[in-house]
Amino acid sequence: MQRRKIRRRPDAPLPTVPMAMKKPDDPSPERGQAERGQDQRGLAVPSARMARLARFGGLGAGIVGNMVAEGAQRLARGQRPSLQDLLLTPSNAAMAADQLSRLRGAAMKLGQLLSMDDGDFVPPEFAEPLSRLRSSAHEMPPRQLRGVLARDWGRDWLSRFEQFDVRPIAAASIGQVHRAVTRDGRKLALKVQYPGVRESIDSDIDNLASIIRIAGVLPKEVNIAPLLEEAKKQLGEEADYERESARVKRFQALLKGSEDFVVPDVHDDFTTRNILAMSYAPGAPIDALTALPQAERDRIATALIDLALRELFEFRLMQTDPNFANFFRDEDTGKIILLDFGAARDIEPALAEGYQALLAAAIRGDWADAHAAALRMGLIDDDTPARLETLLRETYDIAMEPMRHKGPYDFSASDLAARLRDNVVALRTSGFSQPPPPAAMFIHRKLGGLYLIATKLAARVDINGLVTRWTA
Predict the structure, then answer these.
(1) Is the confidence at residue 337, as pLDDT, over 90?
(2) Residue 161: how many CB atoms within 10 A of its CB?
């Protein structure tokens, strides 16, 4: 497929598309374009409130229609399906994934969060189809893109560039990424936000939450209101690219002189609330490094886990999105390129201290102290039934296994991820209805994602040694 480009001078071609330009929740832009049928016109983002509401209405009507058809088929076979059986079907989940990918914005982002591997409460029959949202999104058509750029940069924005690729190299939930070369020769990655995303966050999440409740995707006992409010807050922050640029600069200062990490530069003269301009940083995605020597894979996984602990206990600022495409390796220097800081969150001192106590108890194998710390942090309460507390303790023991192991923990020889997944499913079906506090949930998501990266790399990491540094 030929990419459409606007050129200021035909003799100034762009370099090869860098792998490090991929959007975090779109780990394979090329694959995503193939799944979209390589639609060269793109699909306009519905930015008006009524247009988005109509999409949600269509999704609800489609789910009801599928229920009627599925119910008729099962009755004809002599079955008596329950309402939940009719609602929680692969066809309904696939329909939801398709509509959310068309809406983009907060609706698609929340669908991505519900599909994460560490989600505690979403049934597998919904999580699997929704997982497609992490690798596929429709792009804006060029005309809509030009409107966004003109609004933020002015009508003569093109005069500032030597070359601008109209077709994005990645299209994700909140925005899409374009490559460009400025008149003074800077090679940029430009993340351009979809129109109407920021204004539709609250209504999108409320509408999607209504559909989730009606469809019975979550147990009725689960109070997701705090999580939804936190999602609105975080997505509002992620949609503010000026805020993200400030977070990028904070991480640059914190990691200045690092032998392991590099953070691309922000270009303030092209950055607005809706456009984030960063330097182009070529590299290989973290999940494509499985052929590297064992020692290098061990180094990368160790550095990432050590960084997460520093974020939690030293920086008190954590990038909470563990998607593989947030981490790349510079092939020349071996440094890890850190991308996308929209999900960077400040960590409250009390929360960090709670995790210090929890991890210290894990290393000692002291469940009584771990239980007390979990109570203080709101991870459990005094009303938790004994059978559920037993299951929670088993889940805790599995998650803390690498931290108790003396010496390098071999993720390639461990079924840790599978055991954790089984216990999470058991919790979901056991009647446990207390999600962790939202701030803790995002930290769990990050740490769980790093376990998955270490498993993907078949790495060996002395996590006990890393954690002891902060808990001794």
Answers:
(1) yes
(2) 20
- Helix axis angle, 225-238 to 241-254, nearest 10°: 80
Q: List, in order, residues 6 or more apart from 71 with CB less than 8 Å away.
A: 81, 86
Nearest alpha carbon to residue 2 among 38, 31, 43, 42: 38
What b/e sequence results for 82-99 when a residue is b if at least 16 CB atoms lie within 10 Å of its CB, and e otherwise? eeeebbbbeebbbbbbbb
| Beta bridge pairs of residue 171 | 176
Which amino acid is it at 194? Y
* Residue type for position 81: P
Q: How many CA atoms lie within 13 A of 16 on its CB side?
A: 5
Residue identified by tokens 């008006």 is 48
| Residue pLDDT, tens place only, 343-369 | 899 999 999 999 999 999 988 889 889
Tokens 């003269």 sit on residue: 269
Q: Which residues of 379-408 are buried (b: 16+ CB within 10 A; e: fewer)?
A: bbeeebeeebeebbeebbbbbbbbbebeeb
223-267 pLDDT, tens per residue?
667 777 877 887 888 889 999 999 999 999 999 999 999 999 999
DSSP string for 51-107: HHHHHHHHHHHHHHHHHHHHHHHHHHTT----HHHHHS-HHHHHHHHHHHHHH-HHH
Q: Say which range, 53-67, 296-310, 372-386, has the weakest mean pLDDT.
A: 53-67
Name the maximum alpha-carbon separation found in the chain. 72
Under 8 Å between Cβ of 269 and 280? no
Tokens (6 digits) for 198: 């920021």
CA separation for the pair 108, 98 (Å, rounded): 10
Sequential DSSP letters for 199-262 = GGHHHHHHHHHHHHHHHT-S-TT---HHHHHHHHHHHHHHT-HHHHHHHHHHHHHHTTT-SSEE
Structure tokens given for 255: 């990691």
Cα–Cα distance between 247 and 251 in angstroms, integer?
6
Give the active site residues. 321
Closest listed residue to residue 191, CA positions, set 323, 318, 342 = 342
Q: How is residue 159 annotated by DSSP?
A: G
Euclidean distance between CA atoms 325 and 106, whole angstroms:
20
What does the domain layout of the chain look like in residue ranges? Answer: 44-137+198-238, 284-472
- Please, which residues have CB within 8 angstroms of residue 146's CB and are 6 or more apart in sequence? none
What local confidence, expressed as pLDDT, does residue 436 receive?
73
pTM of the model: 0.74
